[in-house]
Structures are given as structure tokens and as C-alpha cells.
């Protein structure tokens, strides 16, 4: 078993990173070389701006290359919960932003010729308990009537054609998609570079100062100045940007990938070949890879630290969860096991905008794979002075009480959610 991301291992490396010193003056400096930062850099460079991307490690090394490979529309909340908290207009706007995000990715892939196995698969929100299906059904009625008619409610019997595991029903979101995340992020980086962006890898920003109207950013490879800065670092935001660190909770999410499954195994487990998410608070998410591996994830622990010994324990926990859902795969070989960080806000709504002269887009709360490309481009357009399409505009973002960068409270959160799942 390899303790690294399947997406990283299966995709070619990005070969277009700039060499030499980090220096010079730029119109915009983008901090972070994941989906958000690269999509913004491409958009800015296409408009003729001089753009530099400063990536702490390598392109896609963070959440963009460590996720489950889902492009699911819909919110981290139920639509009903979002409407109750934010009002109908804002809830619809956010829901539609997720729809727009998948359209944006599909369009960008076509424009740039990125080969990444993009496919509109549809998503199943699977009811793990009878009462969960009742809640899913209520949410479906509102979603279908008010915001997304491309949805369906499936009974337990109808689900048998979709998945080889007993659930109590599901909501099908037909617009949802999947793709090869590793190939996409490399293709996105190549597109940004092709349009004129300069991308530095291994260039972590260690200092940021705003002097007058000019930003000064220091890295281990040199320093740059810029007229504008976009922070696109999500759960990997460094202490340099403390305002955002105090508002982002970095939660661990872990994934295993099996060996390629046979046609018979696929027919017995995932005949519908969709993205799937279970309804528990500490649930699981899974899909088939382009080469027919089952990619199976969950919060096997909330801790953000990781090493091979703890990864092996996580792998065992996830394999046990896989066997519980799919007993027919209990003895299947696991080829990959990896972890990553999810950038969660206190209310689980994403944020984007500008604070003290620094632009940002983050806090995707488990929906970053789909939203990040779109929101990066939206914020880029705002920086360029184009019409403001930011769906998060005006949404307050208070700091998490008692949180200064290290989420000490995560074990307590994990215990609370496990308790909720145990009682239904």
C-alpha cells in the first residue's frame, strides 16, 4: 500500500514552474497553487495582468490533489437549513453558485483541452437510517420545487440498481460530476502558465506587509511586490495570514483506493457509477476512479497530523467502514491511503471577498473541489474591475472563539458527532 494520494501518483507532474529567484513587481500575487489560485491566475493573466503564483510546495499538493474526486452540486448544509439561516434568496444564490461551478469547470476543460475524465455522473445522498431518509425527502421537496428540478428521490428498492449496499433511499442530484483531480490541477497550472502567469513552487510566503498601496511578500526563495494579493490557501493557510487562520478550522479527511475492480465487482457494488455520500455526521463518500478503483473516504479521525504509522491505522479504519458498506469487498486489496485537510468555517458556509486590502476565497467546508475554480475566477474578475458576481458578498465572517490556528477542540467535536450518529 502506498501512503500517497492516488491523484498525485497517477498524474504527470507539472513541468512549468519558474526557476531562479522569486523577485520583481507584479500586478497581482496569488498565494496558493491549488484550484482557487490557479483558476484566478489564469483568469487574470488572460486579461493581460502580470501575475505571480506563490505555492508553498508543488502545484496541487494540498486539498486540490487530496480530495475524493467529487464535483457535487448542493451545499454543505441541507438547502432547508441554509434557507432557515440565510434566507431564501441567499440560499438559492449559493446553491446556484455550486451549479455554476460545475458548468465553469466543464467549460474550462473544453477551452484548455484538459484530459481529466470529466463526467456528469450524478450524486447520491444515501440515507443511512430511516429517519435520515425522512429528512432527505423533506429537503428534496424544497430543492426540487425552488432551486433544482434536476433532482430525484429514490426509494430503497430503486437504489438497488445504483449501489450494491442496503440504504433507506437517496436523493439524486443529476448535475453533479466527477473527474481526475490530479490531471485537472496540472492542466489548470499549464493553462495559467500558457496565458502568461508565472508559477513558483516551493515558495512559501513567510512574511506579508502592506506599505502604502503596495504589498511586500517574502519567501525562502526571494521577495516580490504586488499591487494586489489573493490568498487561496484554504486549510493550508500559514500563520502569516492570521486573520484567515482564526476563521478556518483545518479538519482531517482520509481516503483509500482499492486495486482496480473487475467488471463483476463493479456490477455488485457500484453499477450506477455515481458519486456517493452517506447521511451520517461522520459518514463516508466514494466513487469509482477512471481505472475502476473504489475511492473511499471519510473522517477516520479529526486530527490534522499524519505519519505513515498513523496513516496505516486510518487505512484500517476506512477499510473496516468499506467492508461494513460493501461486505463483498471486505478482502479487496488497498493500493493507496492518504489524508488531507478540509477548510471548514464555523457555520460551514464558504467565504470570499477582501479584508484589509487582501483578497481571499476559502472555507469551502468539503465542497472545494467544485466551488474553488469558479470562485477563484469570480474574485479574479472583481479584482479586474468587472461586475461583482461574488455569491458570498456581505456575509459576515466572525473568528472561531478560542481558535488561533491549531484546532485543539477537534477531538471534542469528533466525540459529539459520533454521539449524534449513535442516537440517530
UniProtKB/TrEMBL annotation:
It comes from Rhizobium leguminosarum bv. trifolii WSM2297. One of its GO terms (cellular component) is cytoplasm. Residues 27-381 form the FAD dependent oxidoreductase domain. InterPro entries: FAD-dep_OxRdtase, FAD/NAD-bd_sf. Keywords: Oxidoreductase. One of its GO terms (molecular function) is oxidoreductase activity. This is Glycine/D-amino acid oxidase, deaminating.
Amino acid at each position: 500500500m502506498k501512503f500517497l494520494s492516488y491523484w498525485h501518483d497517477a498524474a504527470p507532474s507539472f513541468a512549468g514552474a519558474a526557476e531562479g529567484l522569486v523577485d520583481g513587481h507584479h500586478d497581482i500575487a496569488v498565494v496558493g497553487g491549488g484550484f482557487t489560485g490557479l483558476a484566478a491566475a489564469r483568469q487574470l493573466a488572460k486579461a493581460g495582468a502580470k501575475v505571480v503564483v506563490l505555492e508553498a510546495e508543488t502545484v496541487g499538493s494540498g486539498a486540490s490533489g487530496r480530495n475524493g474526486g467529487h464535483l457535487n452540486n448542493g451545499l454543505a448544509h441541507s438547502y432547508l437549513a441554509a434557507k432557515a439561516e440565510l434566507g431564501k434568496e441567499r440560499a438559492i444564490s449559493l446553491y446556484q453558485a455550486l451549479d455554476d461551478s460545475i458548468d465553469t469547470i466543464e467549460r474550462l476543460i473544453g477551452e484548455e483541452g484538459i484530459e481529466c475524465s470529466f463526467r456528469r455522473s450524478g450524486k447520491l445522498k444515501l440515507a443511512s437510517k430511516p429517519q435520515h431518509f425522512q429528512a432527505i425527502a423533506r429537503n428534496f421537496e424544497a430543492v426540487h420545487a425552488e432551486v433544482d428540478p434536476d433532482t430525484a428521490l429514490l426509494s430503497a428498492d430503486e437504489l438497488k440498481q445504483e449501489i450494491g449496499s442496503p440504504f433507506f433511499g437517496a436523493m439524486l442530484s443529476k448535475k453533479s460530476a466527477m473527474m481526475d483531480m490530479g490531471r485537472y490541477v496540472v492542466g489548470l497550472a499549464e493553462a495559467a502558465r500558457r496565458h502568461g502567469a508565472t508559477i513558483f513552487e516551493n515558495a512559501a510566503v513567510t512574511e506579508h506587509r502592506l506599505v502604502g498601496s503596495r504589498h511586500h511578500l517574502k519567501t525562502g526563495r526571494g521577495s516580490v511586490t504586488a499591487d494586489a494579493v489573493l490568498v487561496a490557501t484554504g486549510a493550508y493557510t500559514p500563520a502569516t495570514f492570521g486573520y484567515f487562520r482564526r476563521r478556518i478550522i483545518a479538519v482531517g479527511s482520509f481516503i483509500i483506493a482499492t486495486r482496480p475492480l473487475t467488471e463483476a465487482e463493479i456490477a455488485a457494488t457500484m453499477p450506477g457509477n455515481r458519486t456517493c455520500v452517506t447521511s451520517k455526521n461522520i459518514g463516508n463518500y466514494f466513487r469509482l476512479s477512471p481505472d475502476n478503483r473504489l475511492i473511499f473516504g471519510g473522517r477516520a479521525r479529526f486530527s490534522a497530523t499524519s505519519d505513515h504509522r498513523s496513516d496505516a491505522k486510518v487505512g484500517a479504519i476506512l477499510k473496516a467502514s468499506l467492508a461494513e458498506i460493501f461486505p463483498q469487498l471486505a478482502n479487496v486489496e488497498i493500493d493507496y491511503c492518504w489524508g488531507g485537510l478540509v477548510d471548514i468555517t464555523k457555520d460551514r458556509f464558504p467565504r470570499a471577498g477582501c479584508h484589509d486590502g487582501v483578497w481571499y476565497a476559502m472555507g469551502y467546508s468539503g465542497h472545494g473541489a467544485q466551488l474553488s475554480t469558479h470562485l477563484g475566477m469570480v474574485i479574479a474578475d472583481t479584482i479586474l474591475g468587472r461586475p461583482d458576481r461574488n455569491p458570498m458578498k456581505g456575509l459576515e465572517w466572525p473568528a472561531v472563539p478560542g481558535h488561533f490556528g491549531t484546532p485543539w477542540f477537534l477531538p471534542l467535536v469528533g466525540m459529539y458527532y459520533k454521539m449524534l450518529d449513535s442516537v440517530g
